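Re: [ENG-882] Designed sequences occasionally contain unexpected residues at chain ends

Forwarding the minimal case from QA. Structure tokens:
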């Protein structure tokens, strides 16, 4: 048995067969020769439960999310874009998604205008502007500490009781 262990080049915890041993694979009962790749069933796309959960948190139905993920090959970004496009079409109609005059505009002109807008935003915001995905996603990082500071400063004169707004209905303030 030790001699067989020495001849076995697999790792200690490896229990699957390798292609280095064609005799074992050919004699194996699990081995079924295939004449062509077309006869094999196509593997079903893997649908991530995490992706389904994330889409359901965005407000999409779980079953519809699962179907869209399967249709999109399991890619979350493409599925989200597809679902949002469907919602937008259902809500505002096909003309809102793709106006008639838009088809006549050349792609080069659209890209040039997009680059001009990106250049203008970069000039305004400097390093706070970044292009995450080329020609698709831009981000602007803003320091909004003044908002949190102004919210903290509304505590009133003594800091414990909230300041009363002058133009708010007294019945609304009482909760009636």
């Amino acid at each position: 048995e030790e001699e067989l262990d020495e001849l076995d080049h697999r790792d200690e915890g490896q229990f699957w067969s390798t292609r280095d041993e064609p005799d074992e694979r050919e004699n194996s009962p699990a081995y079924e020769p295939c004449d062509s790749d077309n006869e094999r069933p196509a593997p079903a796309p893997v649908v991530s439960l995490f992706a389904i959960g994330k889409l359901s948190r965005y407000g999409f139905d779980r079953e519809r999310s699962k179907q869209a993920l399967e249709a999109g090959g399991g890619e979350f970004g493409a599925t989200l874009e597809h679902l949002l496009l469907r919602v937008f079409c259902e809500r505002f109609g096909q003309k809102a998604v793709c106006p008639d005059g838009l088809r006549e505009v050349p792609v080069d002109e659209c890209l040039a205008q997009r680059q001009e807008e990106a250049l203008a935003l970069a000039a305004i915001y400097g390093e706070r502007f970044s292009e995450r995905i080329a020609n698709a996603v831009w981000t602007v990082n803003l320091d909004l500490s003044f908002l949190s500071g102004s919210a903290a400063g509304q505590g009133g004169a003594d800091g414990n009781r909230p300041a009363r707004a002058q133009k708010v209905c007294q019945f609304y303030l009482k909760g009636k």
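QA comment: On inspection the terminal residues look reasonable. Residues 107-144 form one domain. Proposing we downgrade this to a documentation issue.
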